[in-house]
Design a protein that fits this description.
- The chain has one domain (about 30-275).
- It has helices at about 25-45, 50-70, 80, 85-110, 110-115, 120-155, 165-190, 190-215, 215-220, 225-230, 240-245, 250-275.
- Helices cover about 70% and strands about 0% of the residues.
- The termini are far apart.
Length: about 280
């Protein structure tokens, strides 16, 4: 009795999907991260909240910069300065976007499916981190374009543009890290409303109060206080003592990036230790 062994030919379409292996190699992990990045970007680009954030960054930046340039007449303003005023708000918008990258998945119950598809949860964390960074960079670029556009429309002089390129880079780093910080907070808190409320209250209220009462040597290490030092303009509330001990841009970036890294690391640890539902 003879038997013919059936041959199985892998469908062409299966090569376009993420492979499933019992043991993972470095190449497989790299492919898994790429598949996860593609999935995360599709989700981020189709969420209406992110579209609303970008529109708010654009319209708000145009209106605020134009209004400041038009109605503030007691000091000489230039485009190279006013263009960055909106970035403080843009950083908050980027942080909100980062929170929603994780919080919306928890809210709508899609996190469990994402983890089932990729049991190695660090892949999910890495993909969301890169997506948050890209979103923060995009929001920052839109906000800067709107800020400079509003100042130009108002008819301001360009001012000193010799360091403009470097300052734009620092501002984009600020919004990029803000989105990563928001992602980390969202991974820790897991409730979008609570996380967004906490970010806004901390950034706009708590830090300003702490800045009034803490010694200047301590206040300079507050997260958004350090982040705003990456921008071009000087804070009118800074005292001579605060200016004397102010951190450099590189040091401020390390402080703010440290907060983002700690929040992300803690969120990743909790992603492993918590249930997904």
């Amino acid at each position: 009795m003879t038997t013919e062994s059936a041959t199985y030919e892998r469908p062409v379409s299966s090569w376009l999907t993420e492979p499933s292996l019992a043991t993972r190699s470095l190449a497989h992990d790299a492919r898994a991260v790429l598949f996860a990045l593609r999935s995360e970007w599709i989700k981020a680009s189709t969420v209406r909240a992110n579209v609303a954030i970008l529109l708010f960054a654009l319209i708000g930046g145009l209106l605020v910069s134009w209004a400041v340039a038009t109605f503030v007449t007691d000091e000489v303003l230039v485009v190279a300065q006013v263009g960055f005023y909106w970035t403080s708000v843009t950083s908050m918008l980027a942080a909100i976007g980062g929170v929603l990258l994780f919080g919306s998945e928890v809210q709508h119950g899609t996190l469990a499916a994402a983890v089932v598809a990729r049991p190695a949860r660090w892949i999910v964390a890495v993909a969301k981190t890169f997506t948050a960074a890209a979103l923060g960079l995009l929001v920052g670029a839109v906000g800067l374009a709107a800020g400079f556009g509003g100042a130009v429309v108002a008819g301001l002089d360009a001012g000193d543009t010799s360091a403009l390129g470097a300052t734009v880079s620092w501002a984009l780093l600020f919004t990029t890290l803000s989105a990563v910080l928001g992602l980390g907070i969202g991974m820790v808190v897991r409730n979008s409303t609570a996380a967004i409320g906490g970010v806004l209250v901390w950034g706009f209220v708590v830090e300003n109060l702490l800045n009034l009462f803490l010694p200047v040597g301590v206040a300079r290490f507050l997260p958004f206080f350090a982040g705003n030092k990456l921008l071009a303009y000087a804070n009118d509330f800074d005292t001579p003592e605060a200016i004397a001990v102010a951190l450099s841009r590189s040091e401020s970036a390390l402080v703010f990036g440290g907060y983002a890294g700690v929040a992300l690391l803690l969120g990743t640890v909790l992603l492993y230790r918590r249930d997904t539902d």
